[in-house]
Amino acid sequence: MIKIQQNTLYGEAAARIRDMINEGLLLPGARIPEKRLCEQFGISRTPLREALKVLASEGMVELLPNRGARVMRLTRQTLEETYSVMGALEGLSGELACRYITEEEVADIQALHYQMMAHYKRKEIRPYFEFNQRIHDAIMLASRNEVLRETHSSLSYRIQRVRYSTNMIDEYWKQAVADHEAMIDCLLDRDGERLGNILREHLRHKLVVAAASGVIDDDRAASS
């Protein structure tokens, strides 16, 4: 593993650990192996612990008094509450994007969509997910609302690992692709109301599939 440069330290360490959680290398409820990560990243405990504080603020890890940290478990209640807010934010982003988006931005999103579809056809999960996320980010950017973007970003970290896991299920994957095809049509037609509804429903699909795929812990297990 490539070591972290000294001028980025805790920020890059947080990004690395975030990726490890999203990719399932650190499982829900697992203790964060601080000593091993320090060795892998080539950093001391101080920036690593600062990174863990950042991740705790994002709801990705839980800090344990005098016992380090562990990956936060995702309960149905937590996800339902988070998806409810995220759905409202993404729905609003779609409505605003259709009001303000330029032809160039629509073309850029179409290009991202074509690249995402190429990875979908080859069943390449990681790059598919990356382009999928870039499309959602581009729609959010086109909303021209910085407060909306910041609020959405602060919540999205919490559920990225669910998005990544559920995209591996064929039934959901087909539905997600169909949703994205419809999103492109809405952007071309500047149909903000329909795009907002699709984005809200898109998140509801994710919650249903996450529950079916075993990604979510039950509330009693998460509290232990």
UniProtKB/TrEMBL annotation:
Which CDD domains does this chain map to?
WHTH_GntR
A Pfam match is FCD
Any one GO MF annotation of this record? DNA binding
Instruction: Keyword check for Iron, yes or no.
Output: no
UniProt keyword list: DNA-binding, Transcription, Transcription regulation
Domain HTH gntR-type, by residue range, is 7-74
Magnesium: present as a keyword of the record? no
Instruction: Report the InterPro entries cross-referenced here.
Output: GntR_C, TF_FadR/GntR_C, Tscrpt_reg_HTH_GntR, WH-like_DNA-bd_sf, WH_DNA-bd_sf
- Put simply, this protein is called GntR family transcriptional regulator
Recorded source organism is: Salinicola corii
Q: Identify the taxonomic lineage of the organism of origin.
A: Bacteria, Pseudomonadati, Pseudomonadota, Gammaproteobacteria, Oceanospirillales
